[in-house]
């Protein structure tokens, strides 16, 4: 699908965070199991993956319709509390290849943006646990609490592009979830999928400029497209 997009002239790379920059999906999986056991729910890993990138309101609304007798707010609050506890103690490993992409983008004179459904405090802790400052890396940032609609709505990416001062068609979005890829495609961005726990289907491959097994592959792809080192 590369020929569909003007990658060579892209001016900005927008990153999702969980599962893209950090191996934090494993954190969510651990918290998910703990919360499910505490509330006696039969949700599966497939159920969890379907909500990746979605906003809290939509997730809770869907769960209330499925479990009308369960205090879903208490359940989600417990899950999020566990995520924060694990993040606080263990953090999450940075994915190989992130620094390579940052270097490639900077060498090419392009911009970097962060668009994450996570809250700002948790995001900053994850970067700090890896010895980094997000504000030193990104030209623009948008966090989950700053938008009204979660993925697959493109609002968070549109706001990141606006803050970066770049049109959506000039922004590459790196995502690991189908919801994120759908949001990028809907918003008129250049979607690239970094496969993490969820494999790319024909639906994602049909709209992506590139599907990679990791960030290092994406760095090589961008260097090739931009003619930089």
Description:
The mean pLDDT is 92. The chain has 11 helices and 6 strands. 42% of the residues are buried. The longest helix has 19 residues, at 72-90. It is of the alpha/beta class and 229 residues long. The radius of gyration is 17 Å and the shape is globular. The protein has 2 domains: 2-23 and 93-226, HAD superfamily/HAD-like (Rossmann fold, 3-Layer(aba) Sandwich); 25-90. Strands 3-2-1-4-5-6 form a 6-stranded parallel sheet, sandwiched between helices. Strand 5, helix 10 (202-207) and strand 6 (210-212) form a beta-alpha-beta unit. The chain has helices at residues 25-39, 45-50, 56-66, 72-90, 98-107, 120-129, 134-137, 155-164, 178-186, 202-207, 215-226, and strands at residues 12-15, 111-116, 140-143, 171-175, 190-194, 210-212.
Topology, number of strands: 6
- Briefly, what CATH class of the largest domain? Alpha Beta
Q: What radius of gyration results from the CA coordinates?
A: 17 Å
Domain tally: 2
List the keywords.
about 230 residues; alpha/beta; Rossmann fold; 6-stranded parallel beta sheet; 11 helices; 6 strands; about 10% strand
Short structural summary:
With 229 residues, this protein is of the alpha/beta class. The protein contains eleven helices and six strands. The protein has two domains: 156 residues, HAD superfamily/HAD-like (Rossmann fold); 66 residues.
Write the layout of secondary structure elements.
Blueprint: E1 12-15, H1 25-39, H2 45-50, H3 56-66, H4 72-90, H5 98-107, E2 111-116, H6 120-129, H7 134-137, E3 140-143, H8 155-164, E4 171-175, H9 178-186, E5 190-194, H10 202-207, E6 210-212, H11 215-226
């Amino acid at each position: 699908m590369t020929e569909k997009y003007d990658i060579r002239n892209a001016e900005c790379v927008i990153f999702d965070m969980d599962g893209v920059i950090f191996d934090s999906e494993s954190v969510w999986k651990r918290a998910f199991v703990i919360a499910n056991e505490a509330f006696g729910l039969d949700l599966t890993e497939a159920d969890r993956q379907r909500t990746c990138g979605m906003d809290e309101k939509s997730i809770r609304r869907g769960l209330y319709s499925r479990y009308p007798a369960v205090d879903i707010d208490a359940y989600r609050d417990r899950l999020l509390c566990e995520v924060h506890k694990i993040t606080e103690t263990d953090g999450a490993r940075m994915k190989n290849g992130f620094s390579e992409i940052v270097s490639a983008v900077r060498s090419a004179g392009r911009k970097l943006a962060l668009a994450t459904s996570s809250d700002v405090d948790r995001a900053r802790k994850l970067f700090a646990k890896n010895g980094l400052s997000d504000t030193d890396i990104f030209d623009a940032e948008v966090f989950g609490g700053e938008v009204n609609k979660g993925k697959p709505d493109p609002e968070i990416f549109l706001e990141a592009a606006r803050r970066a001062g770049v049109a959506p068609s000039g922004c590459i979005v790196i995502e690991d979830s189908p919801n994120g890829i759908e949001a990028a495609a809907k918003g008129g961005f250049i979607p690239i999928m970094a496969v993490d726990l969820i494999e790319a289907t024909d639906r994602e491959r049909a709209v992506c400029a590139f599907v990679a097994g990791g960030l290092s592959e994406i760095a090589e792809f961008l260097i090739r497209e931009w003619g930089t080192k």
